[in-house]
Amino acid sequence: MYTLGISCYYHDSAASLLKDGKVLAAVEEERFSRKKFDDGFPKMAIDWCLKEAGISPENIDSVAFYDKPVLKFERLLDNYIAVAPRGLYSFLNVIPMWLHKRLWVKDEISKHLKGFNGVIIFPEHHVSHAAHTFFTSPFDEAAILTIDGVGEWSTASFGTANNSTIKLTNDIRWPHSVGLFYSAFTYFLGFKVNEGEYKLMGLSAYGKPNYYDLIMKNLVDVKNDGSVHLNMKYFSFTYDKVMTNKNFSDLFGVPPRKEDSNAEQIHYDIAASAQLVLEDILLKMVNHVHEKTGMKNLCFGGGVALNGVANHRILKDGPFENLHIPPSPGDGGSAIGCAQYLYYCHKKNKRTIEQNSERVRNNIYVGPSFSDDEIKSFLEENNIDYEYLEREQLLQTTAKLISEQNIVGWYQGKMEWGPRALGNRSILADPRDGKMKNVLNEKIKHREAFRPFAPSIIEEYVSEYFDIDITSPYMLLVVPVKKPEKIPAVTHVDGTGRLQSVSKNINPLYYDLINEFYKITGVPVIVNTSMNVMGEPIVTSPEEAFKMWARTEMDNLVMGNYLISENSIDEF
Which of the four pLDDT bands, split at 50, 70 and 90, describes residue 570? Predict the structure, then answer.
């Protein structure tokens, strides 16, 4: 049974294809369109999924879309009536998009999938989030918590999941939203909403929460159960294209920061304050969910679950014994989540929990890949010099290059699912060099200087280098570093790192590369950042990888078994 899942029209459009409940293929539309956070209908992603499986639309049994467009449209109309006459400009811009496109998702699906004659279902937005976080977990039962900006009406929800059943019993509703609260600060501090929230998280480490009390007194009323009520006197997202208004600016005594301006101490402190408020709200929520469900396991999903700093506090200070967050907890991940809901909950198929390594591998490495023959053809067609190395020599040579402070593009196997490069579309560097962070930000990534880099660590050494005793394969936990003097390039200003634990069973090639680096240096850690530059998606094809490498100051590029050095650039 083939099940297709689709998410689109807001950000992170994506498609997934499941066979008998197992993910065969999943990819974001941006990886083909080359438009960062592409929100369009994922035609290319769908086509690739079908091609990867070797099937045509008539082979698809059912299709799931990740939310209910009619309910979303109802909320929009209700909102515009409530705030009228404010919001007229927004109304005139938004409503035509709905009338011409977004309300007719079913027609768009049918038009694109010529020959498909199966069922199309529309789970609620937070149900899709819930399904993705539960069905990627190792649990047969768990409490569920999902938090984002807004779905149809819900902005947060909780409930329970058991085997093939998901029940969301409570929610917080528009416009009162923890996600939009955080996005408001994202906008105010000069970053793009739905894109820059992780930048706010990184910025917060440079400040002190001096505005915590001001925020709690004026902007948000937080109850003991974690439910929130925003003071809409300060927010404009219900009627305008911006998130905050003059009252918000007056409260902090500064205007919204312009994107291209330098951040000052007040911006760092506001960021730190917003981050701490978010964490405290989430802790109240998880305590309440634990009290109401009595579960020992928590599955956490929705865009807010990308906040690795908050995730670690939930794990460290929260009441649950076990925490699971999927590799892509945001809207992109819901392309898989809605398909999982269709297969397990709607179709009532029995769930089989995969072994840990197989489960994690099948959650991550499900994107496009290019064989050595395809890579070689590209190189030779473009007269690019290369050196072919067998596996052991490739690993030893690459590890030695990194240990000598060379920056290496690492392009291998199937592309990772989700927003993080997890060892297959990565830029790698030596974590022992404290200057490497600035070099990567300035000369390679072309991005803000405050942005940290992630450590990839052999999983056997996680507790030796980080204050945590569990694995973190999806790079979703920001935790204190125990040995910052040994890995300064991946230690953030506050002494933390957003780690990826690497298992030999999950990604043997990447594991062995780090292990070779360990043999040379005595450090089982490598700097890992995604193979892209600021404003662009992670590279998909060998051509994109080479072009990105050629226009940055990376030293080497490894694609499959092929090593490319600086003398190849001039010939391209």
Answer: low
Residue 102: DSSP 8-state: G
Answer whether the bond into residue 480 is a cis peptide, omega within 30°: no
Domains of the chain by residue range: 2-66+69-121+331-353, 178-324, 372-568
Which of 387, 389, 384, 456 lies closest to 426, judged by CA?
Answer: 456
Task: Confirm if 485 and 514 have CB atoms less than 8 A apart.
Answer: no
Class of domain 178-324: alpha beta
DSSP state of 481: B
Question: How far is CA 366 from each of CA 101, 264, 296, 380, 468, rounded to the nearest angstrom?
Answer: 29, 41, 30, 27, 28
Backbone angles phi, psi at 263, to 5 degrees: -75, 140
Q: What is the DSSP letter of 305?
A: G
Strands 425-429 and 525-530: antiparallel
Instruction: Note whether 98 and 38 are within 8 A (CB).
Output: no
CB 201 within 8 A of CB 185: no
2-66+69-121+331-353 and 178-324 have identical folds: yes
Query: CATH fold of 372-568, please?
Result: DHBP synthase (3.90.870)
Output the CA torsion sign for 364, 140, 501, 196: positive
C-alpha 264/C-alpha 252 separation (Å) is 13
Please report, for residues 318, 370, 415, 570, the alpha-carbon distance to residue 561 in angstroms, rounded to integers and kept in the order given: 45, 12, 16, 22
pLDDT at position 569, please? 59
Q: What share of the chain is helix, strand, coil (3-state, %, to 5)?
A: 40, 20, 40
Render pLDDT for 344-364 as a digit per residue (tens, 0 to 9): 999 999 998 888 889 999 999
Superfamily of domain 2-66+69-121+331-353 in CATH is: ATPase, nucleotide binding domain (3.30.420.40)
